[in-house]
Amino acid sequence: MKGERYLIVLGAAGIGASQLLRIRAAIDGAGLRWLIDRSDLICATDSAQVQSIGAPCDGMIIGDIFTTDMTARGLAELRATDGLDCARSGGATLIDEYWGSYVAVIAAQNGGPSCIVRAPLGRLALYHLRDGALLYAASDVDLLLRASAHRPAINWGMIDRHLKADQLRTPETGLAGVTELLPGFRLTPDGRAEMLWDPSRYYAHHSNDDYRELPAQIRTITDFCVGTWAQRYGRIVLGVSGGLDSSIIAASAHAQGAHLSCLTLATSDPAGDERDYAKALTDHLGIHLFEFNEDPAEIDLHRSASAHLPRPVARSFGQTGDRHNLEVARAEAANAFFSGAGGDNVFCYLRSVAPLADRLLADGIGRRSWRTALDIAALTGAGAWEVCRRGIARARRRRSAYRWPIDGSFLAGASDEAAGMSHPWLEAALHLPPGKQNHIALLLNIQNHLDGYGREEVLPCIAPLLSQPLVELCLSVPSWVWLEGGLNRAPVRQAYTDALPDLILARHSKGTPDPFIIEIFERHRATIRDMLLGGLLAGQGLLDTEAIEQATHDDRPVRDLAYFRLIKLVDVEAWLRSWSA
């Protein structure tokens, strides 16, 4: 997207003349302006949000950076002393003192290497590759490939792992030789990534602490984060479902003066029609609601909205949402799209016995743990004694690592083993109780849902609830606190009691896109069959073609969840074809 592109080249031994010509051509062709032009470091961008880290570093910060001082809103100016500390720490103090969506370039000094730092939870991407002594890093793959002249093949090993665990985002991408620097990591010229932001460090083992002040803390920090993003962009299109998370953003942004245009999508099936809830929200706030119907005829399964990305994360059923969001954005002269994405993840929405295991490890068997067991039973509908039995069994395995779920359906020779299916955040969290490991896994689970939309190529897509100050607060809270009283995200509901209508606060159900996905499957069944049986995935021997033939040949109405899995496989196939072309 124009206004958020950058290119960085690190070369410890210097950048050669032929390489420099190609780099200059890529920079000029993309309309970027030069920020740093040294023999060992080049940095260029088209972003309007740029500031110097200052002498003696000769570094730059690209993107949106905010202070953690809650008396200040909007973009922050880096203080001179903070710039010096940032340079000396290789960016570590920047992560501790500021937040936002940025990439920092820290030039070599005192014999140390140059490095690049990506903000924790920031949406500004960083892809990189090595070519001899040079390291190329860029905001997008197109710019990266133009500058480096790298011609990647498909990384079939990553594709195989993605098919088994499509919610797990690792540094590996679907293009051979192209790697992503994960949020909160530092990149050195040799291509080594170092974790600077570790979510496990924000949790302290708790026992009988009093959390009566937690709702007020959540309200203060949520309003601070949403208000900061709202001030940054001003005119916003917000997708609302009438669920708790998007409603919080609407109430907070509206109260703080943002120009808010709300949009909701409805399926023909009542399970995917949340207009009554969305209307209750916008009527309560006194703002206009744009309502649209989802139409399976508008879906083109051959087109991938992540064709500009190095991994197949697009969801074809989102194409109508893209079209309507862009329609409202043009009509309202919006500067950004907001969503409630990540709310369940940040606010630790778990439906398992893991919170009871945490409570048992903290308090032992007694009234407090029994109360948590009753909360889980009320939330899930399971029997309290069965919850206790399973919770005790889970607590006894306290040192076991989180196991990422594997889906081998419709895959050829798929294994249920989670070999290689991990992440540095989870590896650093082995000392945490199981519920908190699950909380960190939830934060990972949302990462592949934050990009892969067509509208992100036009305007920024912001998920305000995934802001660093709010995430760090929520990570500090024990897992059982989030479901007290048998309500999911209980402290959040308490925090916004005076800001949202009772219909929203009391809502336990969630809308689902499943009816719309079923309509897509039934309308495009022949296309799905042809794409999967005659496509690149089948050609690589990755699919169980016999099972797919059987599942797509039956023209009777859908009876199980196979449709959802098959649509996911088609989305990967569409991405593969966009790159193989």
Structure commentary:
- By secondary structure, the protein is of the alpha+beta class.
- The chain has helices at residues 17-29, 80-89, 92-97, 141-148, 156-164, 214-233, 244-255, 275-285, 319-332, 343-346, 354-363, 367-380, 384-396, 424-427, 434-445, 468-475, 490-495, 502-505, 514-523, 525-533, 536-539, 545-553, 562-580, and strands at 6-11, 33-37, 41-45, 50-52, 60-67, 98-106, 115-118, 127-131, 134-138, 179-180, 185-187, 193-195, 235-239, 259-266, 289-293, 336-338, 461-462.
- The protein has four domains: 6-197, Aminohydrolase, N-terminal nucleophile (Ntn) domain (Glutamine Phosphoribosylpyrophosphate, subunit 1, domain 1, 4-Layer Sandwich), CATH 3.60.20.10; 201-207 and 346-445, no CATH class; 218-342 and 455-505, HUPs (Rossmann fold, 3-Layer(aba) Sandwich), CATH 3.40.50; 514-580, no CATH class.
- 39% of the residues lie in helices and 14% in strands.
- Helix 1 runs antiparallel to helix 4, helix 6 runs antiparallel to helix 16 and helix 20 runs antiparallel to helix 22.
- It starts with 5 loop residues before the first strand and ends with a helix.
Summarize the structure.
It contains 23 helices and 17 strands. The chain is of the alpha+beta class and 581 residues long. Helix 1 (17-29) packs antiparallel against helix 4 (141-148), helix 6 runs antiparallel to helix 16 (468-475) and helix 11 runs antiparallel to helix 15 (434-445).
Reconstruct the topology from this structure.
Elements: E1 6-11, H1 17-29, E2 33-37, E3 41-45, E4 50-52, E5 60-67, H2 80-89, H3 92-97, E6 98-106, E7 115-118, E8 127-131, E9 134-138, H4 141-148, H5 156-164, E10 179-180, E11 185-187, E12 193-195, H6 214-233, E13 235-239, H7 244-255, E14 259-266, H8 275-285, E15 289-293, H9 319-332, E16 336-338, H10 343-346, H11 354-363, H12 367-380, H13 384-396, H14 424-427, H15 434-445, E17 461-462, H16 468-475, H17 490-495, H18 502-505, H19 514-523, H20 525-533, H21 536-539, H22 545-553, H23 562-580
Parallel strand pairs: 13-14, 13-16, 14-15, 16-17
Antiparallel strand pairs: 1-3, 1-9, 2-3, 4-5, 5-6, 6-7, 7-11, 8-9, 8-10, 11-12
Helix pairs in contact: 1-4, 6-16, 7-8, 11-12, 11-13, 11-15, 12-13, 19-23, 20-22
